[in-house]
From TrEMBL:
Pfam families: EGF (PF00008), F5_F8_type_C (PF00754). The lineage of its organism: Eukaryota, Metazoa, Chordata, Craniata, Vertebrata. Residues 1-26 form the signal peptide. Keywords: Disulfide bond, EGF-like domain, Signal. Residues 25-63, 66-110, 112-148 form the EGF-like domain. This is Lactadherin-like.
Protein backbone atom coordinates (compact mmCIF):
# COMPACT_ATOMS: atom_id res chain seq x y z
CA UNK A 1 0.00 0.00 0.00
CA UNK A 2 3.04 2.22 -0.07
CA UNK A 3 2.11 3.51 -3.50
CA UNK A 4 -1.36 4.59 -2.51
CA UNK A 5 -0.56 8.32 -2.52
CA UNK A 6 0.88 8.34 -5.98
CA UNK A 7 -1.77 6.24 -7.61
CA UNK A 8 -4.45 8.31 -6.01
CA UNK A 9 -2.99 11.47 -7.54
CA UNK A 10 -2.74 9.87 -10.94
CA UNK A 11 -6.33 8.77 -11.05
CA UNK A 12 -8.15 11.34 -9.01
CA UNK A 13 -11.02 13.01 -10.72
CA UNK A 14 -11.24 10.66 -13.62
CA UNK A 15 -11.80 7.17 -12.29
CA UNK A 16 -13.21 5.46 -9.29
CA UNK A 17 -10.68 5.17 -6.51
CA UNK A 18 -11.17 1.41 -6.27
CA UNK A 19 -10.21 0.87 -9.87
CA UNK A 20 -7.17 3.03 -9.49
CA UNK A 21 -5.83 0.99 -6.59
CA UNK A 22 -6.18 -2.12 -8.72
CA UNK A 23 -4.04 -0.68 -11.43
CA UNK A 24 -0.89 -0.73 -9.31
CA UNK A 25 -0.29 -4.44 -9.47
CA UNK A 26 -0.11 -6.32 -12.72
CA UNK A 27 -1.29 -4.71 -15.90
CA UNK A 28 -1.04 -0.97 -16.21
CA UNK A 29 -3.99 -0.84 -18.58
CA UNK A 30 -6.51 -2.23 -16.09
CA UNK A 31 -7.31 1.39 -15.56
CA UNK A 32 -7.30 3.20 -18.85
CA UNK A 33 -4.79 6.01 -18.35
CA UNK A 34 -5.46 7.24 -21.87
CA UNK A 35 -7.87 10.15 -22.22
CA UNK A 36 -10.40 11.02 -24.89
CA UNK A 37 -11.13 7.48 -25.96
CA UNK A 38 -7.51 6.49 -26.43
CA UNK A 39 -6.65 2.78 -26.29
CA UNK A 40 -4.19 1.58 -23.66
CA UNK A 41 -1.73 -1.11 -24.80
CA UNK A 42 0.73 -2.88 -22.49
CA UNK A 43 4.13 -4.42 -23.05
CA UNK A 44 5.16 -2.44 -26.09
CA UNK A 45 8.87 -1.64 -26.19
CA UNK A 46 10.37 -0.26 -23.00
CA UNK A 47 7.29 1.47 -21.68
CA UNK A 48 4.84 -0.42 -19.48
CA UNK A 49 2.03 0.95 -21.63
CA UNK A 50 1.38 3.33 -24.49
CA UNK A 51 -1.74 5.15 -25.58
CA UNK A 52 -3.05 4.89 -29.10
CA UNK A 53 -5.02 8.11 -29.44
CA UNK A 54 -8.35 8.64 -31.12
CA UNK A 55 -8.53 10.97 -34.11
CA UNK A 56 -7.67 14.53 -33.30
CA UNK A 57 -5.84 13.82 -30.05
CA UNK A 58 -2.17 13.44 -29.23
CA UNK A 59 0.34 13.45 -26.40
CA UNK A 60 1.40 10.68 -24.00
CA UNK A 61 -2.07 10.26 -22.51
CA UNK A 62 -4.12 11.58 -25.47
CA UNK A 63 -5.25 14.71 -23.70
CA UNK A 64 -3.62 17.12 -26.14
CA UNK A 65 -5.84 18.36 -28.90
CA UNK A 66 -4.40 18.24 -32.37
CA UNK A 67 -4.80 21.57 -34.07
CA UNK A 68 -3.53 21.02 -37.56
CA UNK A 69 -0.45 19.01 -38.54
CA UNK A 70 2.01 21.04 -36.45
CA UNK A 71 0.30 20.66 -33.10
CA UNK A 72 1.61 18.69 -31.30
CA UNK A 73 4.94 19.42 -33.00
CA UNK A 74 6.07 16.35 -34.98
CA UNK A 75 9.62 17.72 -35.46
CA UNK A 76 12.33 16.36 -33.20
CA UNK A 77 15.36 18.11 -31.74
CA UNK A 78 13.79 21.55 -31.55
CA UNK A 79 12.95 21.63 -35.23
CA UNK A 80 10.19 24.08 -36.06
CA UNK A 81 7.14 22.88 -37.91
CA UNK A 82 5.63 24.77 -40.83
CA UNK A 83 2.23 24.09 -42.34
CA UNK A 84 2.39 24.00 -46.12
CA UNK A 85 -1.28 23.42 -46.80
CA UNK A 86 -3.60 22.96 -43.86
CA UNK A 87 -5.83 20.43 -45.61
CA UNK A 88 -6.41 16.96 -44.27
CA UNK A 89 -6.00 13.97 -46.52
CA UNK A 90 -7.57 10.76 -45.28
CA UNK A 91 -6.40 9.91 -41.80
CA UNK A 92 -2.90 11.31 -42.18
CA UNK A 93 -1.59 14.81 -41.75
CA UNK A 94 1.44 15.23 -43.95
CA UNK A 95 1.14 18.78 -45.15
CA UNK A 96 4.02 20.18 -43.14
CA UNK A 97 7.80 20.45 -43.24
CA UNK A 98 10.28 20.51 -40.39
CA UNK A 99 12.92 23.23 -40.32
CA UNK A 100 15.81 21.66 -38.44
CA UNK A 101 18.24 23.20 -35.97
CA UNK A 102 21.89 23.20 -37.13
CA UNK A 103 23.33 19.72 -36.76
CA UNK A 104 20.10 17.83 -37.49
CA UNK A 105 18.50 16.60 -40.67
CA UNK A 106 15.79 14.27 -41.95
CA UNK A 107 12.03 14.58 -42.49
CA UNK A 108 11.51 15.05 -38.75
CA UNK A 109 14.99 16.35 -37.87
CA UNK A 110 15.52 12.97 -36.27
CA UNK A 111 19.00 12.43 -37.76
CA UNK A 112 21.97 13.88 -35.91
CA UNK A 113 24.49 15.06 -38.53
CA UNK A 114 28.17 14.43 -38.05
CA UNK A 115 29.33 17.87 -36.93
CA UNK A 116 32.94 16.73 -37.20
CA UNK A 117 32.65 16.13 -40.95
CA UNK A 118 33.87 19.65 -41.76
CA UNK A 119 36.94 19.09 -39.54
CA UNK A 120 36.42 22.15 -37.33
CA UNK A 121 39.33 21.42 -34.95
CA UNK A 122 42.61 23.09 -35.89
CA UNK A 123 46.19 22.36 -34.82
CA UNK A 124 45.80 18.65 -34.24
CA UNK A 125 42.73 18.91 -32.04
CA UNK A 126 40.54 15.82 -32.05
CA UNK A 127 36.86 16.23 -32.78
CA UNK A 128 33.92 14.62 -30.99
CA UNK A 129 30.48 14.68 -32.59
CA UNK A 130 27.68 15.71 -30.25
CA UNK A 131 23.95 16.22 -30.64
CA UNK A 132 23.90 19.32 -32.85
CA UNK A 133 27.39 20.41 -31.81
CA UNK A 134 31.01 19.25 -31.62
CA UNK A 135 33.82 19.48 -29.10
CA UNK A 136 37.53 19.82 -29.84
CA UNK A 137 40.07 18.26 -27.53
CA UNK A 138 43.07 20.55 -28.00
CA UNK A 139 46.66 19.45 -27.49
CA UNK A 140 48.57 21.88 -25.28
CA UNK A 141 49.39 24.72 -25.83
CA UNK A 142 46.38 25.23 -28.14
CA UNK A 143 43.08 26.42 -26.70
CA UNK A 144 39.72 27.76 -27.83
CA UNK A 145 36.58 26.18 -29.25
CA UNK A 146 38.50 25.14 -32.38
CA UNK A 147 42.02 24.96 -30.87
CA UNK A 148 42.76 28.09 -32.91
CA UNK A 149 44.61 30.01 -30.16
CA UNK A 150 48.18 29.49 -28.97
CA UNK A 151 48.83 30.00 -25.27
CA UNK A 152 52.63 30.29 -25.10
CA UNK A 153 53.69 33.56 -23.47
CA UNK A 154 56.68 33.47 -21.14
CA UNK A 155 55.13 34.70 -17.91
CA UNK A 156 58.09 36.60 -16.47
CA UNK A 157 60.43 34.64 -14.22
CA UNK A 158 63.33 35.36 -16.57
CA UNK A 159 61.99 38.67 -17.86
CA UNK A 160 61.15 40.05 -14.42
CA UNK A 161 57.39 40.58 -14.86
CA UNK A 162 57.00 38.23 -11.90
CA UNK A 163 58.47 40.22 -8.99
CA UNK A 164 60.27 38.96 -5.87
CA UNK A 165 57.25 39.25 -3.61
CA UNK A 166 55.34 36.79 -5.83
CA UNK A 167 57.83 33.99 -5.25
CA UNK A 168 58.02 32.02 -2.02
CA UNK A 169 59.39 28.67 -0.85
CA UNK A 170 59.16 26.16 1.98
CA UNK A 171 62.79 26.83 2.99
CA UNK A 172 66.05 28.41 1.84
CA UNK A 173 69.58 27.04 1.82
CA UNK A 174 72.28 29.28 3.31
CA UNK A 175 75.77 28.44 2.00
CA UNK A 176 79.30 29.33 3.15
CA UNK A 177 78.65 29.98 6.84
CA UNK A 178 75.29 31.53 6.10
CA UNK A 179 76.65 34.20 3.73
CA UNK A 180 75.09 32.87 0.50
CA UNK A 181 71.32 32.95 0.40
CA UNK A 182 69.84 30.63 -2.26
CA UNK A 183 66.46 32.32 -2.03
CA UNK A 184 63.30 31.61 -4.10
CA UNK A 185 63.52 35.04 -5.78
CA UNK A 186 66.65 33.75 -7.57
CA UNK A 187 64.84 30.86 -9.27
CA UNK A 188 64.79 32.63 -12.65
CA UNK A 189 65.64 30.85 -15.88
CA UNK A 190 69.20 31.60 -17.05
CA UNK A 191 69.98 33.59 -13.88
CA UNK A 192 73.74 34.20 -13.74
CA UNK A 193 76.26 34.68 -10.93
CA UNK A 194 77.78 32.61 -8.15
CA UNK A 195 74.51 32.41 -6.25
CA UNK A 196 71.95 32.15 -9.04
CA UNK A 197 69.11 29.76 -8.11
CA UNK A 198 66.75 28.60 -5.35
CA UNK A 199 67.89 25.71 -3.16
CA UNK A 200 65.79 24.24 -0.36
CA UNK A 201 67.30 23.76 3.10
CA UNK A 202 69.04 20.41 3.65
CA UNK A 203 66.67 19.43 6.47
CA UNK A 204 63.51 20.27 4.45
CA UNK A 205 61.70 16.94 3.86
CA UNK A 206 58.83 18.48 1.87
CA UNK A 207 60.31 21.26 -0.19
CA UNK A 208 58.31 23.45 -2.58
CA UNK A 209 58.58 26.75 -4.40
CA UNK A 210 55.50 28.77 -5.28
CA UNK A 211 54.61 31.55 -7.71
CA UNK A 212 51.58 33.73 -7.01
CA UNK A 213 50.40 35.01 -10.40
CA UNK A 214 48.16 37.56 -8.61
CA UNK A 215 45.18 36.54 -10.75
CA UNK A 216 43.93 33.39 -12.39
CA UNK A 217 45.98 32.42 -15.41
CA UNK A 218 46.11 29.57 -17.86
CA UNK A 219 49.43 27.70 -17.61
CA UNK A 220 50.44 25.44 -20.47
CA UNK A 221 54.02 24.59 -19.55
CA UNK A 222 57.09 24.97 -17.36
CA UNK A 223 60.79 25.26 -18.25
CA UNK A 224 63.23 24.11 -15.56
CA UNK A 225 66.98 24.35 -15.14
CA UNK A 226 69.41 23.40 -12.39
CA UNK A 227 72.55 25.27 -11.27
CA UNK A 228 76.10 24.69 -10.25
CA UNK A 229 77.19 25.29 -6.65
CA UNK A 230 80.88 25.24 -5.79
CA UNK A 231 81.65 23.27 -8.96
CA UNK A 232 78.93 20.68 -8.38
CA UNK A 233 75.82 20.28 -10.53
CA UNK A 234 72.60 20.43 -8.49
CA UNK A 235 69.18 19.97 -9.99
CA UNK A 236 65.66 18.54 -9.65
CA UNK A 237 65.39 15.23 -11.52
CA UNK A 238 61.65 14.76 -10.99
CA UNK A 239 58.89 16.96 -9.63
CA UNK A 240 55.15 17.31 -9.14
CA UNK A 241 53.05 20.41 -9.64
CA UNK A 242 50.21 21.65 -7.45
CA UNK A 243 47.93 24.62 -8.03
CA UNK A 244 45.41 26.69 -6.14
CA UNK A 245 42.84 29.45 -6.65
CA UNK A 246 43.11 30.91 -3.16
CA UNK A 247 46.46 29.85 -1.68
CA UNK A 248 44.70 27.54 0.80
CA UNK A 249 43.37 24.57 -1.10
CA UNK A 250 45.80 22.90 -3.47
CA UNK A 251 45.19 20.28 -6.15
CA UNK A 252 48.09 18.17 -7.38
CA UNK A 253 48.30 18.00 -11.16
CA UNK A 254 47.14 14.80 -12.82
CA UNK A 255 47.23 14.02 -16.53
CA UNK A 256 43.89 13.65 -18.34
CA UNK A 257 42.03 10.58 -17.15
CA UNK A 258 44.75 9.60 -14.65
CA UNK A 259 44.19 9.08 -10.94
CA UNK A 260 47.78 9.37 -9.79
CA UNK A 261 49.74 12.58 -9.47
CA UNK A 262 51.74 13.31 -12.58
CA UNK A 263 55.50 13.15 -12.00
CA UNK A 264 57.38 15.36 -14.46
CA UNK A 265 60.86 14.48 -15.64
CA UNK A 266 63.14 17.39 -14.76
CA UNK A 267 66.79 18.16 -15.37
CA UNK A 268 69.89 16.06 -15.95
CA UNK A 269 72.69 18.61 -15.59
CA UNK A 270 73.43 22.06 -14.19
CA UNK A 271 72.62 24.15 -17.20
CA UNK A 272 70.32 22.61 -19.84
CA UNK A 273 66.69 23.60 -19.89
CA UNK A 274 63.88 21.06 -19.85
CA UNK A 275 60.38 21.95 -21.06
CA UNK A 276 57.27 20.12 -19.85
CA UNK A 277 53.77 20.86 -21.16
CA UNK A 278 50.65 20.85 -19.05
CA UNK A 279 48.14 18.93 -21.11
CA UNK A 280 45.43 19.80 -20.13
CA UNK A 281 46.50 23.31 -19.10
CA UNK A 282 46.32 24.41 -15.46
CA UNK A 283 43.96 27.24 -14.55
CA UNK A 284 45.13 28.74 -11.28
CA UNK A 285 46.49 31.75 -9.45
CA UNK A 286 49.08 29.89 -7.35
CA UNK A 287 51.41 27.29 -8.81
CA UNK A 288 53.72 25.16 -6.70
CA UNK A 289 56.65 23.06 -7.89
CA UNK A 290 57.25 20.13 -5.56
CA UNK A 291 60.64 18.39 -6.01
CA UNK A 292 60.39 14.59 -5.82
CA UNK A 293 63.96 13.51 -6.68
CA UNK A 294 66.92 15.89 -6.45
CA UNK A 295 70.59 15.53 -7.38
CA UNK A 296 72.77 16.75 -4.47
CA UNK A 297 70.18 19.37 -3.53
CA UNK A 298 66.85 20.69 -4.78
CA UNK A 299 68.11 23.57 -6.87
CA UNK A 300 66.00 25.32 -9.47
CA UNK A 301 65.82 28.06 -12.05
CA UNK A 302 62.57 28.19 -14.02
CA UNK A 303 60.08 29.90 -16.33
CA UNK A 304 56.30 29.51 -16.62
CA UNK A 305 54.52 29.35 -19.99
CA UNK A 306 50.88 30.31 -20.45
CA UNK A 307 48.50 33.15 -21.18
CA UNK A 308 45.85 35.41 -19.74
CA UNK A 309 42.38 34.05 -19.34
CA UNK A 310 40.75 36.93 -21.15
CA UNK A 311 40.70 35.16 -24.51
CA UNK A 312 37.01 35.66 -23.91
CA UNK A 313 37.07 39.20 -22.62
CA UNK A 314 33.51 39.23 -21.33
CA UNK A 315 30.67 37.03 -20.25
CA UNK A 316 28.98 37.33 -23.63
CA UNK A 317 31.95 35.64 -25.33
CA UNK A 318 31.96 32.86 -22.75
CA UNK A 319 28.46 31.48 -22.82
CA UNK A 320 28.67 28.27 -24.77
CA UNK A 321 26.36 25.48 -23.67
CA UNK A 322 28.66 23.18 -21.71
CA UNK A 323 26.99 19.99 -22.89
CA UNK A 324 23.85 18.97 -21.00
CA UNK A 325 21.83 19.07 -24.21
CA UNK A 326 24.59 18.02 -26.59
CA UNK A 327 25.67 15.18 -24.24
CA UNK A 328 29.27 16.41 -24.07
CA UNK A 329 28.50 16.00 -20.38
CA UNK A 330 28.05 12.24 -20.15
CA UNK A 331 25.52 10.40 -17.98
CA UNK A 332 28.30 9.42 -15.57
CA UNK A 333 28.99 13.09 -14.88
CA UNK A 334 25.47 13.64 -13.50
CA UNK A 335 24.25 12.67 -10.05
CA UNK A 336 21.59 13.72 -7.57
CA UNK A 337 20.48 13.45 -3.97
CA UNK A 338 17.64 11.07 -4.94
CA UNK A 339 15.27 10.18 -7.78
CA UNK A 340 11.49 9.91 -8.06
CA UNK A 341 9.50 7.11 -9.72
CA UNK A 342 6.03 7.90 -11.02
CA UNK A 343 3.52 5.43 -9.55
CA UNK A 344 6.53 3.55 -8.17
CA UNK A 345 7.21 2.21 -11.67
CA UNK A 346 10.92 1.75 -12.48
CA UNK A 347 10.42 2.64 -16.14
CA UNK A 348 9.21 6.06 -15.03
CA UNK A 349 12.30 6.95 -12.99
CA UNK A 350 13.25 10.63 -13.20
CA UNK A 351 17.03 10.15 -13.30
CA UNK A 352 19.51 13.05 -12.97
CA UNK A 353 20.77 11.87 -16.39
CA UNK A 354 17.43 13.05 -17.80
CA UNK A 355 17.95 16.66 -16.68
CA UNK A 356 19.09 17.66 -20.17
CA UNK A 357 17.59 20.79 -21.69
CA UNK A 358 14.79 19.98 -24.15
CA UNK A 359 14.92 16.25 -23.44
CA UNK A 360 11.86 14.52 -24.86
CA UNK A 361 9.95 11.44 -23.72
CA UNK A 362 7.53 10.48 -20.96
CA UNK A 363 10.09 10.82 -18.19
CA UNK A 364 12.30 13.60 -19.47
CA UNK A 365 13.72 15.46 -16.48
CA UNK A 366 15.23 14.97 -13.06
CA UNK A 367 12.87 14.79 -10.11
CA UNK A 368 13.95 13.83 -6.56
CA UNK A 369 12.20 11.35 -4.26
CA UNK A 370 11.24 14.08 -1.77
CA UNK A 371 10.20 17.64 -2.29
CA UNK A 372 12.22 19.64 0.18
CA UNK A 373 15.24 21.91 0.30
CA UNK A 374 17.78 19.13 0.90
CA UNK A 375 17.62 17.88 -2.68
CA UNK A 376 20.25 18.68 -5.31
CA UNK A 377 21.46 17.72 -8.76
CA UNK A 378 25.18 17.76 -9.54
CA UNK A 379 27.29 18.13 -12.67
CA UNK A 380 30.95 17.09 -12.61
CA UNK A 381 32.55 19.01 -15.48
CA UNK A 382 35.69 16.86 -15.10
CA UNK A 383 37.89 19.91 -15.27
CA UNK A 384 37.71 23.46 -14.05
CA UNK A 385 35.58 25.66 -16.28
CA UNK A 386 34.40 29.24 -16.16
CA UNK A 387 30.66 29.26 -15.45
CA UNK A 388 28.69 32.25 -16.66
CA UNK A 389 25.06 31.15 -16.61
CA UNK A 390 22.38 28.50 -16.42
CA UNK A 391 19.22 27.72 -18.39
CA UNK A 392 16.46 25.84 -16.57
CA UNK A 393 13.27 24.21 -17.77
CA UNK A 394 10.47 22.23 -16.13
CA UNK A 395 8.57 19.24 -17.52
CA UNK A 396 5.22 17.47 -17.38
CA UNK A 397 4.59 14.22 -15.55
CA UNK A 398 1.69 12.69 -17.44
CA UNK A 399 0.14 16.04 -18.15
CA UNK A 400 0.90 17.63 -14.77
CA UNK A 401 2.96 20.80 -15.14
CA UNK A 402 5.95 20.75 -12.77
CA UNK A 403 8.93 23.07 -12.38
CA UNK A 404 11.45 24.69 -10.04
CA UNK A 405 10.54 28.34 -9.50
CA UNK A 406 13.45 29.41 -7.27
CA UNK A 407 16.86 27.79 -6.85
CA UNK A 408 20.36 28.30 -5.47
CA UNK A 409 23.62 27.29 -7.11
CA UNK A 410 26.64 25.82 -5.33
CA UNK A 411 30.06 24.93 -6.70
CA UNK A 412 33.19 23.09 -5.69
CA UNK A 413 36.61 22.15 -6.95
CA UNK A 414 36.89 18.83 -5.15
CA UNK A 415 33.26 17.73 -4.74
CA UNK A 416 33.57 18.06 -0.97
CA UNK A 417 34.01 21.68 -0.02
CA UNK A 418 31.10 23.71 -1.46
CA UNK A 419 30.49 27.43 -1.88
CA UNK A 420 27.06 28.86 -2.62
CA UNK A 421 26.78 31.59 -5.25
CA UNK A 422 26.24 34.81 -3.30
CA UNK A 423 24.31 37.95 -4.08
CA UNK A 424 27.05 40.56 -4.66
CA UNK A 425 25.18 43.34 -2.87
CA UNK A 426 23.78 41.58 0.19
CA UNK A 427 26.32 38.80 0.62
CA UNK A 428 23.48 36.30 1.15
CA UNK A 429 22.96 33.16 -0.93
CA UNK A 430 21.65 34.27 -4.30
CA UNK A 431 18.11 33.11 -5.11
CA UNK A 432 17.69 32.59 -8.84
CA UNK A 433 14.24 32.99 -10.36
CA UNK A 434 13.45 29.77 -12.17
CA UNK A 435 10.57 28.62 -14.34
CA UNK A 436 6.92 29.53 -14.56
CA UNK A 437 5.78 26.67 -16.79
CA UNK A 438 6.84 23.23 -17.95
CA UNK A 439 8.54 24.17 -21.17
CA UNK A 440 9.96 27.69 -21.50
CA UNK A 441 13.72 28.19 -21.10
CA UNK A 442 14.65 30.51 -18.24
CA UNK A 443 18.17 31.91 -18.37
CA UNK A 444 20.10 33.29 -15.40
CA UNK A 445 23.61 34.72 -15.58
CA UNK A 446 26.30 34.39 -12.94
CA UNK A 447 27.66 37.83 -12.18
CA UNK A 448 30.53 37.63 -11.60
CA UNK A 449 31.25 34.29 -13.30
CA UNK A 450 32.92 31.62 -11.16
CA UNK A 451 35.41 28.84 -11.79
CA UNK A 452 34.56 25.31 -10.77
CA UNK A 453 34.68 21.65 -11.66
CA UNK A 454 31.51 20.65 -9.77
CA UNK A 455 28.21 22.55 -9.93
CA UNK A 456 25.04 21.84 -7.96
CA UNK A 457 21.55 23.22 -8.41
CA UNK A 458 19.63 23.42 -5.13
CA UNK A 459 15.85 23.73 -5.69
CA UNK A 460 14.36 26.24 -3.25
CA UNK A 461 10.76 26.62 -4.38
CA UNK A 462 8.75 24.61 -6.89
CA UNK A 463 5.38 23.94 -8.46
CA UNK A 464 3.84 20.47 -7.87
CA UNK A 465 7.13 18.52 -7.81
CA UNK A 466 10.79 19.50 -8.09
CA UNK A 467 11.32 18.83 -11.82
CA UNK A 468 14.27 20.12 -13.75
CA UNK A 469 15.92 20.11 -17.16
CA UNK A 470 18.91 22.38 -17.59
CA UNK A 471 21.98 23.58 -19.44
CA UNK A 472 25.11 25.19 -18.00
CA UNK A 473 26.75 28.09 -19.85
CA UNK A 474 30.42 28.98 -19.79
CA UNK A 475 33.72 28.19 -21.44
CA UNK A 476 36.85 26.18 -21.00
CA UNK A 477 39.00 28.72 -19.25
C1 LIG B 1 77.63 23.04 -16.04
O1 LIG B 1 77.23 23.17 -17.39
C2 LIG B 1 78.19 23.75 -18.24
C3 LIG B 1 77.59 23.93 -19.60
O2 LIG B 1 77.00 22.74 -20.05
C4 LIG B 1 79.42 22.84 -18.27
O3 LIG B 1 80.41 23.41 -19.08
C5 LIG B 1 79.94 22.66 -16.84
O4 LIG B 1 81.00 21.73 -16.82
C6 LIG B 1 78.85 22.19 -15.92
N1 LIG B 1 79.32 22.22 -14.55
C7 LIG B 1 79.12 21.22 -13.70
C8 LIG B 1 79.63 21.43 -12.35
O5 LIG B 1 78.57 20.18 -14.05
C1 LIG C 1 13.78 16.09 3.27
O1 LIG C 1 13.07 14.86 3.23
C2 LIG C 1 13.82 13.73 3.66
C3 LIG C 1 12.93 12.50 3.52
O2 LIG C 1 11.66 12.73 4.02
C4 LIG C 1 14.32 13.94 5.09
O3 LIG C 1 15.14 12.85 5.45
C5 LIG C 1 15.08 15.24 5.19
O4 LIG C 1 15.45 15.48 6.53
C6 LIG C 1 14.23 16.38 4.69
N1 LIG C 1 15.01 17.62 4.73
C7 LIG C 1 14.49 18.79 5.12
C8 LIG C 1 15.40 19.98 5.07
O5 LIG C 1 13.32 18.91 5.46
C1 LIG D 1 -4.01 15.95 -19.20
O1 LIG D 1 -4.30 15.08 -18.12
C2 LIG D 1 -3.75 15.42 -16.88
C3 LIG D 1 -4.12 14.33 -15.87
O2 LIG D 1 -3.65 13.10 -16.28
C4 LIG D 1 -4.22 16.80 -16.44
O3 LIG D 1 -3.62 17.16 -15.23
C5 LIG D 1 -3.89 17.81 -17.50
O4 LIG D 1 -4.36 19.07 -17.14
C6 LIG D 1 -4.45 17.38 -18.85
N1 LIG D 1 -4.01 18.30 -19.87
C7 LIG D 1 -4.83 18.84 -20.79
C8 LIG D 1 -4.21 19.73 -21.79
O5 LIG D 1 -6.02 18.60 -20.78
Amino acid sequence: MKRLGNVFTACLGTFALLLCLYSVEGEYCKVNLCHNGGTCVTGVGEDPFICICADGFGGDTCNLTEIGPCNPNPCKNDGSCEVISPTRRGDVFNEYICRCQPGFEGMHCQINENDCAKQPCKNGGSCRDLDGDYACQCPSPYVGKQCQLRCISLLGMEGGAIVESQISASSVHYGIMGLQRWGPELARLNNQGVVNAWTSATHDRNPWIEINMQKKMRLTGIITQGASRMGTAEYIKAFKVASSFDGNNYVTYKADGQRRDKVFVGNADNDSTKTNLFDPPIIAQYIRIIPVVCRKACTLRMELVGCELNVYSNTAGCSEPLGMKSRLISDAQLSASSTYRTWGIDTFTWHPQFARLDKAGKTNAWSPAHNNRSEWIQVDLEKTKRLTGIITQGAKDFGVVQFVSVFKVAYSNDGELWSTVKDEKTGNDQLFQGNIDNNAHKKNVFEPPFFARYVRVLPWEWHERITLRMELLGCDD
